[in-house]
Amino acid sequence: MRSIITISREFGSGGREIGKKLSERLNIPFYDKELLEMASKQSGICEELFYRNDESHSNSLLYSLVMGTYPLSSDGKIHPNMPLNHKLFLAQFDTIKKIAEQGPCVIVGRCADYVLKDHKNVINFFINSDMQNKKKRILERYDIEKDKVRDFIKKTDKNRANYYNYYSDMKWGEAKNYDLCINSSRIGIDGAVDLMVTYIDVREKHLDKE
Amino acid sequence: MRSIITISREFGSGGREIGKKLSERLNIPFYDKELLEMASKQSGICEELFYRNDESHSNSLLYSLVMGTYPLSSDGKIHPNMPLNHKLFLAQFDTIKKIAEQGPCVIVGRCADYVLKDHKNVINFFINSDMQNKKKRILERYDIEKDKVRDFIKKTDKNRANYYNYYSDMKWGEAKNYDLCINSSRIGIDGAVDLMVTYIDVREKHLDKE
Hints:
The structure is a homodimer.
Chain A: E1 4-9, H1 15-26, E2 30-31, H2 34-43, H3 47-52, H4 61-67, H5 84-101, E3 105-108, H6 112-115, E4 122-128, H7 131-141, H8 149-167, E5 180-183, H9 184-209
Parallel strand pairs in A: 1-3, 1-4, 2-3, 4-5
Helix pairs in contact in A: 1-9, 2-5
């Protein structure tokens, strides 16, 4: 087992739990929100800001165009007037790169598939689920009224999609960006983990043959 | 094994070969273009018309609105002025339904996942692939100039997407429509078949538990 696993996931699909279980089965480190704390330590930017802006993109492209504040200036260095969101993204970008250098691991969300797209041993999973299952899962875990859960899910996924589509040149949730997309409601959390273990095995054997 | 397998696929991804091999491994019938001949026999519409219009949608919605030629009249019967494309779609729709009634099988393309969406034991796969692999595969199989192959692939997939998006209420190639999406270039044709066999096993066990 030599692969770095990234997991993109719909809100309520169980992607985090699947990733955690997969990392335990493979006995490799797991990063989800843990990544935010690391990015804060490495960048010196206050940890709370990472949590508050996690996987959402509130500064519009228009705003950054008007302000002339692109992520990088022409010499490739961080622009002093860069909006906060871009600074947070770049800090996470660096952290993900550093984590991947240390060997096999599971990273959930935060455009990790895009950040590591030139890395050789990366496997990109996408976990989705039927709305009914997502609603059930979120209601069990969040203190939210039943008639508001659907909107909550849609809004959270919209944020994730905006964040991903803005920083990558790809479209969140489109099958062609990922190695394998799994609907977790059809095979369950443990079924998804079993399938991913099989996939990693098949994939590494295929790479050896090439 | 009790599942009906549908395979949607990018052009050049090897979806047909994967489906054929899967059907042989599972010892169940396989339908790809075979479906067109059956639809022709059942509907009485000339077979050549099915081949010429296969998975493409040239009559625009605007056209059918202007002509007042919707797929079905208010009593649910085929409208005598229905455009040819709609007649062909409905004939294939009926054929797919009949095939599914006969038990486990593999059906490639032709919106079979949409046609069978209310069927209990259906598993919907989507096969995609990297452009480089698709080009290589198409060049080996079609008499086409090297500098035209990319456009040929894009155009064929655009036709498939238009056909699917028009007749279903879903978007072709979006992970959330399928149970499992596999990038065949990452694990090879045989790897994809192996994974699908594992998936079917995991899925049927999960259904038994529910």
